[in-house]
Specification:
Blueprint lengths: L2 H12 L26 E6 L2 E6 L12 H8 L24 H13 L6 E8 L6 H6 L3 H9 L4 E9 L1 H20 L3 H13 L10 H26 L24 H15 L4 H10 L12 H11 L6 H19 L3 H13 L7 H10 L3 H6 L2 H14 L2 H12 L5 H10 L2 H6 L1 H10 L7 H11 L8 H14 L3 H17 L3 H15 L7 H14 L3 H4 L7 H4 L4 H18 L8 H16 L7 H17 L5 H14 L4 H21 L6 H17 L6 H17 L3 H14 L6 E4 L2 E4 L1 H15 L12 H11 L2 H4 L1 H18 L14 H5 L3 H27 L3 H18 L5 H15 L6 H14 L8 H9 L2
Antiparallel strand pairs: 1-2, 3-4, 5-6
Length: about 950
C-alpha cells in the first residue's frame, strides 16, 4: 500500500504529532552513519554550470579487501548446491526461542490458516553482459556497487496457486537454501535469501494467513541473524590481558575486546543491509542482525531500535506495520533486554494510526478479498497481544493506565480492549472491572466480536473478586443475553459461570440455568462440549451438592447435550465431584440420592458394545463409590435400594460385585446385631440377602470373581445359620470349576488360572471342615463333589497342580477325622458334633483318603513317564512329609510307603538337600516316641539317620 513512496513524507509529517521521543535530525551528510570516512568531491563543468558530484560514502570502505563482495562477484545463483547441511547452533545468537514466543508462534500457526491459493514472487539473478574475465579482474567500486544493486535488477518469477502446505514447505525451503548457501561460504547469497523472504511480508493478498506468514518468515530471518552473529563471534578471537594465545570472546564481552578485523566485517554487513533500497526488507534484515551491533558498540543499540521504530512509520499498510513493530519489540527484548519504553512507543505509534484500520483503502482491500472486517481485525490480535503482554509484565502501572486511557478514547475499540483483557494481569482487570464492562458495552454493534470481549473478561476474572460484583454480574448478563448466536452465548456462559455462582443466590443461579436451557434447545453437537463444561463448572464450584440438586434446572441441562460422549463425561465428572466431597460421610437425602442415581444411570447407559474395557472399569468403579456413599440407616430400605441398583446397572461387573458385597455386609451386620439369635424376621431378612447374592453372582463375567463371591456368600450364610443357602452357593461354585479357562485377565494382564484355583480350593476346604453334612445327600457329599470336579480340571491346570490339590483334600480329611474341630461357627453344629467320631464316618474318611492316595501315586507315575521329574520329586517329598507327620507309622505298610516316597523324591537328585535335612532333623525328635522295634524305627534305620 505505497510503503516505499510513503516513507519519508510520513516520517517528516508524523514526527511533530507524536509525544517527544528521540527523532533523528534530517540533515545532509557526506559520511555514512555507521563509519566515519573522508569523502571528496569533484567539480564538473556542464555547459556554463558547475556540477558538484560527491563520491558515494560507501566507496571508501570497499578499498580494503572485502571477502563477501569478492565472492559475490564470482557467485551464480543457479550454480548453488541446494543440498541441505546441518548448521551448528550459535554460541550466543538471538535469544528468540524463549518459551512465551514458542507458545505464541505455535498458537498462531494453528489458528491462522487458509484454504485459498497463495503465491510467492521470487527474484532470480539476471546475468550481466560482461564476460567472466571482466568480472574476475575488475574488482572496483563500480562493480561492487553493482553487486549490491543487483537486488533491484532481477527478473521476477512467480510461484502461484500454492496450497497452504505448499507455501509453508516453500518458505521452509528458503531457510534450507539460506543455510546451504552459508555453509558453502556464499554469504551474499544468504543475504539475498533473507531479503527475498522479508519482501514476502509486504504481500497481504490473503490477509487471514498473514500472521502465519509472519511467523514462518521471521523464523528464517532469525536463522540468518544467528548465522551472522556466529560468524562474527568466530572471527572475534582476542588476546586476553597478559596472554599471547588467541581466545574466544567471553560471555559478556565489550566492544573493546573485539579485534578490528571482526569489526570491519561487522560494518561490512551493516553497509550491505543499509544499501537495501526497499524499506521493509531493510528494516527486517537489520532487525534480524541487531545482536551483531554488540561487536561495535553497546551504547547505540537503544538508538538503533528507536531509529527502526521511526522507520516503521513509513509503512503504509497497518497490518504490515503492526507486525513489524511486534518483531522490533521482540528482537529488542531479546538483544538488550529493552524495557517497556520501546513497546510503549510502538503501541503509541500504532494507536495514533489506529483509524487507518477502518479507512476506505482497507475496506476496498477486504471487499476485494471477500474478508469480513471482524476476521481482518482478528489478524491483529497476535501482534497486539505480544506487545501489550510486554507492558503488562513490566508492572509499570503508569504505562498501563496511560494505554488504558488512550484505548478508551478510540472508536471501534474492541480490538484494543481484547488485548488489554487478554494480557493485563487479572488483578488489574478486577480493579478496572466496572469501567471495562462499560467499555465493552460501548462496543456493542462494532466490528470486533462482542462475545470475545465478554468471554475473555469472564475467564480473567475467574477466582478474583471485584468491588461491585452484583453490578458487574447484572450488566454482563444483559450483554450476554443480547447475543444472537447461540454458540457465542454459550461461550460467554462458560466463561462467566464461576463468577455468577460465586455472587448469586440459589434461586438466581436456577433462573440463569433455565435461560441456558431455553437457549440450548436448538443447539447442535458442536455446542455439547461447552454445555458439558458448564455443567461441570456448576457442580465443581457450588458449595453444597445437596442444595445443588434442589434446583429444578440443573439436571435438565444434561438433556440438552446432544453428544452422548459429552453427556457421559459430564455425568462422570459430577459423580467424581460428589464422591470427592463426601470422602468420610454418606448421604440419605432422597432428593440427592434420586439425582445421583439418575446421573449414574445416564453414565451406565452410555456403555455399549463399542466401549473399551478401561472405560467400563472406570465407570464401574465410580458408580460403586456412589453406591457406597448412600446409606439409609435401615437394612430393609438399604436392601430395596440395592435391588433397584442391580436392575439399573446390570452391564457393569464392578457394580454387581459391589452390590453383592454390600448385601453380604448388611447380612453380617444383622447377624451381629442379634448376636446370632435370629428371630423369624431377621432370619427371613438374612435369607433374602443370601438369595440376592445367589441370583446376582451368575451375571458376573469373570469366573474367578464368581468363585470368590460364592464362597464369601456361603461363609456369611453359615454365619447366619442359613445352611441351605450355604450348600447351594458351594455347589454352584463347584459347578464352575470344569468351566474355568486356562488363563484369565487380571488387571489387564493374562495370568494362568492355576494359582487362583489353588487359593480358592484351600479357602473352600477350610470352610468345608465346619459345614455340616446334609443327611439326604450323604456323608461329606460336598467334599466328594470337589474331588470329582478336580478330576475334570487336569486339562486346565495340569496333572501336577491337581495332585497338589488332592494332597490339600487329604489334609482336610485328617482334620475332619478328629473328635473335635479346631474352630466352629456359633449356632452351627459341625460334623464333629453330628457324628461324634462315629465309625461309619471315620470309615468314609479313610475310604476317601485311600482313593485320593491311590490317585496321587498314579499321578506320580504319570509325571515320571512325562519326564516331569522336578514336579515328581517335589510332590513325592511333600507326600512323604504328610505321611510321617499325620499317618500312624506303626503300620508297616505306611512306613514302607514313606520309605518308597523318600527314595522317589531323591531318585533323580532334583530335591533341595537343605529342605531334606530339615525334615530329617524333625524325624530325630520323634525317635523317643516309638519303641525300638516299631515300623517307624525300621524306617529310620533305612533312612540311615
Amino acid at each position: 500500500m505505497g510503503a516505499r513512496n510513503f516513507e519519508w513524507n510520513w516520517i517528516c509529517k508524523s514526527s511533530f504529532e507524536l509525544p517527544p521521543i528521540h527523532v533523528c535530525k534530517l540533515e545532509q551528510t557526506l559520511n555514512h552513519p555507521l563509519k566515519q570516512i573522508n569523502t571528496t568531491s569533484k567539480i564538473e563543468t556542464v555547459g556554463q554550470k558547475e556540477k558538484v558530484t560527491f563520491i558515494d560514502p560507501l566507496s571508501g570502505s570497499f578499498e580494503n579487501a572485502d571477502p563477501l563482495s569478492l565472492m559475490a562477484a564470482q557467485e551464480d545463483w543457479d550454480d548453488l548446491d541446494l543440498s541441505v547441511e546441518p548448521v551448528k547452533a550459535p554460541k550466543r545468537g538471538l535469544e528468540v526461542s524463549d518459551n512465551p514466543w514458542i507458545e505464541q508462534r505455535t498458537a498462531i500457526l494453528n489458528k491462522f490458516t487458509t484454504t485459498q491459493k497463495l503465491s510467492i514472487s521470487l527474484q532470480q539473478h539476471q546475468e550481466r553482459g560482461s564476460s567472466s574475465k571482466d568480472v574476475a579482474t575488475n574488482i572496483g567500486i563500480k562493480n561492487k556497487l553493482e553487486q549490491l544493486d543487483d537486488f533491484e535488477e532481477l527478473t521476477l518469477r512467480q510461484l502461484e496457486q500454492l496450497s497452504q502446505a505448499e507455501y509453508v514447505e516453500t518458505v521452509n525451503s528458503f531457510g534450507k537454501v539460506l543455510v546451504t548457501a552459508w555453509n558453502h561460504d556464499f554469504r551474499v547469497k544468504a543475504l539475498k535469501v533473507a531479503i527475498q523472504c522479508a519482501k514476502l511480508l509486504v504481500d497481504t493478498s490473503v490477509v487471514q494467513f498473514y500472521p502465519s506468514k509472519f511467523v514462518l518468515i521471521t523464523d528464517v530471518l532469525d536463522m540468518f541473524g544467528n548465522l551472522v552473529y556466529e560468524r562474527l563471534l568466530a572471527k572475534a578471537e582476542y588476546y586476553p590481558s597478559g596472554s599471547k594465545i588467541l581466545s574466544p570472546l567471553p560471555e559478556n564481552f565489550t566492544p573493546n575486546m573485539v579485534p578490528e578485523s571482526a569489526k570491519e566485517t561487522c560494518r561490512n554487513w551493516f553497509y550491505k543491509i543499509a544499501s537495501i533500497r526497499e524499506l521493509i526488507p531493510r528494516l527486517y534484515v537489520e532487525a534480524a542482525v541487531l545482536k551483531s551491533y554488540t561487536f561495535l558498540t553497546n551504547s547505540e543499540l537503544s538508538d538503533c531500535v528507536n531509529r527502526l521504530t521511526l522507520m516503521t512509520r513509513g509503512i503504509g499498510d497497518p497490518l504490515v506495520a503492526v507486525y513489524t513493530r511486534c518483531y522490533l519489540c521482540r528482537i529488542g527484548q531479546s538483544v538488550f533486554k529493552a524495557g517497556p519504553e520501546l513497546i510503549r512507543q510502538n503501541l503509541i505509534d500504532f494507536l495514533l494510526l489506529y483509524e487507518q484500520l477502518f479507512s476506505p483503502t482497507v475496506f476496498h482491500q477486504l471487499s476485494t478479498q471477500k474478508v469480513e472486517l471482524a476476521a481482518y481485525l482478528g489478524t491483529y490480535v497476535p501482534a497486539l497481544d505480544w506487545m501489550f503482554q510486554g507492558i503488562a509484565n513490566s508492572e509499570r502501572h503508569d504505562y498501563l493506565d496511560e494505554l488504558f486511557k488512550l484505548c478508551m478514547e478510540k472508536r471501534n475499540k474492541g480490538l484494543l480492549f481484547n488485548s488489554i483483557l487478554s494480557t493485563f494481569k487479572p488483578e488489574y482487570i478486577a480493579q478496572k472491572a466496572e469501567v471495562l464492562v462499560q467499555q465493552i458495552a460501548s462496543c456493542f454493534g462494532e466490528s470486533f466480536p462482542l462475545y470475545t470481549l465478554l468471554k475473555t473478561m469472564g475467564e480473567r476474572l475467574r477466582g478474583h473478586t471485584t468491588s461491585n460484583s452484583n453490578y458487574i454480574k447484572r450488566e454482563v448478563w444483559k450483554l450476554v443475553s443480547k447475543l444472537e448466536n447461540d454458540g457465542d452465548y454459550l461461550s460467554c456462559v462458560q466463561a462467566w459461570i464461576p463468577f455468577i455462582i460465586a455472587h448469586s443466590s440459589t434461586s438466581e443461579l436456577n433462573a440463569i440455568l433455565g435461560d441456558i436451557i431455553d437457549r440450548s434447545r436448538t443447539s447442535t453437537k458442536s455446542s455439547s462440549a461447552i454445555l458439558q463444561d458448564t455443567i461441570i463448572t456448576v457442580a465443581s464450584n457450588f458449595p453444597d451438592m445437596d442444595q445443588l440438586f434442589t434446583m429444578d434446572k440443573f439436571l435438565p441441562l444434561l438433556d440438552v447435550i446432544r453428544s452422548d460422549s459429552s453427556r457421559a463425561m459430564a455425568c462422570q465428572r459430577i459423580l467424581e465431584i460428589f464422591c470427592k466431597s463426601r470422602t468420610a460421610e454418606c448421604t440419605a437425602d432422597p432428593v440427592t440420592t434420586d439425582a445421583l442415581m439418575f446421573i449414574a444411570k445416564v453414565l451406565h447407559d452410555s456403555v455399549n458394545a463399542l466401549s473399551v474395557d478401561d472405560e467400563k472399569r472406570q465407570y464401574g468403579q465410580l458408580i460403586s463409590q456412589l453406591i457406597l456413599k448412600i446409606d439409609f440407616g435401615d437394612f430393609e430400605q438399604q436392601l430395596r435400594f440395592y435391588v433397584e441398583a442391580r436392575a439399573t446397572f446390570m452391564n457393569l461387573d464392578a457394580v454387581i460385585v459391589t452390590l453383592v458385597h454390600c448385601v453380604n455386609r448388611i447380612a453380617v451386620e444383622t447377624g451381629k446385631n442379634v448376636k446370632c439369635h435370629h428371630t423369624k424376621r431377621t432370619a427371613a431378612f438374612v435369607h433374602a440377602c443370601a438369595a440376592f447374592s445367589y441370583i446376582t453372582i451368575p451375571s458376573v463375567t469373570s469366573e474367578i470373581t464368581r468363585l470368590r463371591l460364592y464362597l464369601v456368600t456361603a461363609q456369611i450364610a453359615l454365619f447366619n445359620q442359613s445352611l441351605g443357602q450355604a450348600d447351594a452357593c458351594i455347589a454352584s461354585a463347584l459347578a464352575i470349576l470344569p468351566q474355568l479357562p486356562v488363563s484369565v485377565e487380571i488387571d489387564g494382564k493374562m495370568c494362568l488360572i492355576q494359582p487362583y484355583l489353588s487359593e480358592f480350593v484351600k479357602n473352600l476346604l477350610s470352610t468345608l471342615i465346619i459345614v455340616p453334612d446334609c443327611f439326604e445327600q450323604g456323608m461329606l457329599y460336598l467334599t466328594r463333589g470337589l474331588v470329582n470336579m478336580l478330576q475334570q480340571c487336569v486339562e486346565i491346570t495340569g496333572i501336577a497342580a491337581v495332585t497338589r490339590l488332592y494332597l490339600d483334600v487329604i489334609r482336610m480329611l485328617s482334620v475332619v477325622a478328629r473328635p473335635e474341630y479346631p474352630y466352629h461357627i456359633r449356632k452351627v453344629d459341625s460334623n464333629d458334633i453330628l457324628y461324634g467320631s462315629d465309625p461309619k464316618f471315620l470309615t468314609e474318611i479313610n475310604s476317601m483318603s485311600s482313593i485320593l492316595l491311590e490317585e496321587i501315586l498314579n499321578n506320580l507315575q504319570t509325571l515320571g513317564e512325562q519326564k516331569d521329574l522336578e514336579e515328581q520329586a517335589a510332590i513325592s517329598f511333600e507326600l512323604f512329609q504328610y505321611v510321617i507327620e499325620i499317618v500312624n507309622l506303626e503300620s508297616e505298610g505306611m512306613a514302607t510307603l514313606a520309605y518308597q516316597l523318600w527314595l522317589l523324591s531323591h531318585k533323580h537328585k532334583c530335591l533341595d538337600k537343605k529342605m531334606a535335612m530339615r525334615v530329617l532333623d524333625s524325624l530325630r525328635l520323634k525317635l523317643p516316641m516309638y519303641p525300638a522295634n516299631s515300623a517307624f524305627s525300621l524306617l529310620i534305620s533305612k533312612l540311615k539317620i
